[in-house]
Design brief:
Chain A: Pfam families: DUF4266 (PF14086). Chain A: InterPro entries: DUF4266 (IPR025362). Chain A: This is DUF4266 domain-containing protein. The complex is a heterodimer of chains A (71) and B (395). In chain A, 34% of the residues lie in helices and 0% in strands. Chain A has 71 residues and is mainly α. Chain A has one domain. The two termini of chain A are 33 Å apart. The two termini of chain B are 25 Å apart. Chain B is mainly beta. In chain B, strands 1-2-3-4-5-6-7-8-9-12-13-14-16-17-18-19 form a 16-stranded antiparallel beta barrel. A two-stranded antiparallel ribbon of chain B has the order 10-11. Chain B is globular. In chain B, a hairpin with a 4-residue loop joins strand 15 and strand 16. The chains are: A mainly alpha (71), B mainly beta (395). At the A-B interface, helix 1 and helix 2 of A face strand 1, strand 2, strand 3, strand 5 and strand 6 of B.
Chain lengths: 71, 395
């Protein structure tokens, strides 16, 4: 478990280094709204509460500062 | 809940009126004047219950409800050199009622702290050179509650790779906060108790991201943050009961360094299924280490309807300053009985539904997306919560 983040990063790096460029006209699936590499707006409140109820935050599945909102 | 729908229907009325006056434009021309690109309304209802409130020293109700409404307006224009200027203005209002905050005054059935409102506006500007794949941004934000004020600023930079398959991003954020010293009622006026004025809390965040398109249906992103906090990091109304039965105000160090590292991936499986994955490793100098793993599987039922089941698992170790009710000894320099900093694991699961009909949601051409999402959260120390959110997108 301790080295899991390194293994995951190494795996993704290996995949990324082996990829061939995708042209703009080939990006219809990449540009699909479900493929977006960020949180959706509808997740905004749930991510805030998860960061309040848990000791971790940031990078970026949740807030990392600003506005306590703590209860 | 009523407020969500009142706000939702009020906006629907506004959208409908706007749609009738100005029919949708399907061309992708580049506006030289400011043009509304998108309006999002996000409303949520959240409830939680548990029995480990930090306000009452680690034992006591954590019952809380929150109604949140936010509106996000994005406008764009193109400048002389084909530079894209994007302005994003958002304002959110949360109204929450908290049974535990009510216990700042232990004898109260309903004190002034039983409910509060939080208002959080923000304004962001991005200047983007689409030809060079380069963007720079700047933004400000604030958040105001009765006992907490926050002012924030950020600057950002991003650059796409030559083949437009990769993108590097960097962001710096600063938050300058003020905490009102609101002590538990029985501790007010005692020596060594912070019970008047304000204290400052500053947060500085440096973030780096890199995203890469791996193939026609697979992309990944790596994110790393370095978060430094200084100032008053306790909350003045949190009680801690020592082994001898005495009650104290929570006391935590005045600095904290957090390092979250994360990876995201999206994979289009066949023609109708998307696999979205997220993993985060987190560590800080208060002794918390955590792992977060999240999977969501949007399934396209038709071209306009998709459902998205999701599951998130989270586990953390305890902060070295945490102990439960009447478990801290008088020899400790720092102490908290806030179970958010205890050892636990949690699961969050639920379902999302997204509608994007060609002729608009409810026949309103400009209202091009409706998304509803429900999730249930359970924590191994008996806290549970439910949240339902709705996002209306107007283009």
């Amino acid at each position: 478990m301790k080295h899991l983040p390194l293994w995951i990063a190494a795996g993704f790096m290996a995949m990324a280094s082996g990829c061939s460029p995708v042209k703009e006209y080939q990006k219809n699936k990449i540009n699909d709204s479900d493929m977006v590499l960020s949180n959706r707006k509808v997740e905004k409140t749930e991510l805030s509460f998860q960061s309040y109820r848990e000791g971790s935050s940031g990078a970026n599945a949740g807030k990392s500062g600003g506005g306590c909102g703590c209860n | 809940m009523k407020r969500i729908f009142i706000t939702g229907f009020a906006l629907l009325g506004l959208f409908k009126a706007y749609a009738q006056n100005d029919p949708a434009d399907s061309t992708s021309y580049k506006p030289k004047k400011l043009k509304i690109e998108e309006i999002n309304l996000v409303s949520s209802y959240y409830r939680q219950d548990g029995n480990n409130s930090a306000v009452t020293g680690g034992e006591g109700t954590e019952k809380l409800t929150d109604i949140s409404n936010a509106i996000d307006l994005r406008v764009v224009k193109y400048g002389e050199n084909n530079i894209k200027h994007t302005f994003d203005f958002e304002v959110g209002v949360d109204h929450y009622s908290s049974a535990s905050s009510d216990k700042i005054d232990l004898s109260a059935n309903s004190s002034a702290s039983s409910s509060d409102m939080r208002v959080y506006p923000s304004l962001n500007y991005i200047r983007e050179n689409e030809e060079k794949g380069r963007a720079m941004g700047i933004g400000i934000s604030s958040s105001s509650e009765y006992d907490y004020q926050s002012f924030g600023g950020n600057v950002s930079f991003s650059q796409k790779t030559k083949d437009r398959n990769g993108e590097f991003g960097a962001k710096f954020q600063a938050y300058l906060d003020q905490v009102k010293m609101l002590a538990p009622i029985e501790l007010r006026g005692l020596p060594n108790v912070d019970d008047s004025g304000n204290a400052s809390r500053n947060t500085f965040v440096g973030s780096l991201t890199y995203s890469q398109i791996v193939s026609k249906n697979f992309q990944v992103m790596f994110q790393a943050d370095l978060v430094s906090q200084q100032g008053y990091l306790s909350l003045p109304f949190h009680r801690v009961y020592f082994t001898d039965g005495s009650v104290h105000q929570e006391k935590l160090p005045d600095s904290r360094l957090k390092i979250p590292l994360a990876a995201r991936a999206s994979y289009f499986l066949g023609d109708n299924i998307v696999l979205r994955g997220y993993y985060r490793f987190y560590t800080d100098d208060w002794g918390i280490q955590s792992h977060t793993a999240d999977i969501e599987i949007p399934v396209k039922i038709t071209s306009f309807v998709s459902v998205s089941p999701f599951y998130r698992y989270y586990t953390q170790t305890a902060a070295k300053y945490f102990k439960g009710y009447e478990m801290h000894g008088p020899q400790s320099d720092f102490y908290t009985s806030n179970y958010d900093l205890s050892k636990f694991d949690s699961s969050f699961f639920g379902l999302g539904l997204r509608l994007t009909p060609v002729n608009g949601v409810f026949g309103i051409k400009r209202l091009n997306m409706l998304e509803i999402r429900y999730g249930h959260y359970v924590r191994s120390n008996n806290l549970d919560s439910d949240i339902i959110s709705i996002n209306l997108r107007f283009k």
